[in-house]
Amino acid sequence: MFDWTKTLQWVVAKMPWVCLVALAYFVFAPDSCIPEFALAFRSEWRGFAFWIMCPVILITGAWLWERYCQWREEQEQAKKAKREAKLAQLCIWNRFTRLSPEAQIFLISLFFSGGMGKIVRLNDPMIVVLREQGFLVAPLAGVQSMEDLGKPIGTVVLSNTMADYMNRYSGQFQAQAEALKARLTEDRASDSADSNKWTPTASSEDMHPDAVIARKYAEGDPETIRKLSIFDP
Questions:
Q1: Contacts of 101 (CB under 8 A, 6+ apart)
Q2: pLDDT in tens, 157-179
Q3: pLDDT for the residue 204
Q4: Minimum mean pLDDT range among 8-17, 117-126, 187-196
Q5: Cα 44 to Cα 56: distance, rounded to the nearest angstrom
Q6: Which residues contact 157 (CB under 8 A, 6 or more apart)?
Q7: Which residue, among 163, 153, 181, has the nearest Cα to 96 in the 3D structure?
Q8: What are the residues whose beta carbons fall under 8 Å from the beta carbon of 65, sequence distance 6 or more?
């Protein structure tokens, strides 16, 4: 036999507003909205239903407050998770920008190459740093060959975290690559200009008269020795 009492308790506990709406309709609805066969029942139980509404209102209020607090907590957790994700992304970007320009360009070119993998020497200092910091991973199945124990060659790929981050901010990394290339080009031009600056050479210094006499004296030129010997005591 179906137990209406347990069903009513479950509805009051889980959805008290349903009971409140039903009771309010039963108590306050006009007679024209109530079926004729239920009017006698309503007249007999209307007062009882009205008093039952009081605790149901309190239960509904407590239920709504609990749901509101739960919603606020979920919102706070969502905001906290968003802040933590933003800080984590900022940490990745800061770690990336602290790398050498060559390492940054390597990672960016690896991402935009499409394959996101490249065969390298696994003991290369730059590759070692990128792997230790979590930017690259070298799958065990990616080892191609090993010339000797000191020169392993294998395939490195972007880590999942770095690949997802670069995919999300691909435009920012593309702008960074262009800025790095412009900076490297400027540095090379500056180094080239510095190397082309004129500096006194040994040959120009040797053409000075005193330098010529000193060199001939050191070489033992008799005429130079004779001329300089007049200053000897």
A1: 180, 183, 184
A2: 888 888 888 888 888 888 888 88
A3: 46
A4: 187-196
A5: 20
A6: 110, 116, 117, 136, 137, 138, 139, 142
A7: 163
A8: none
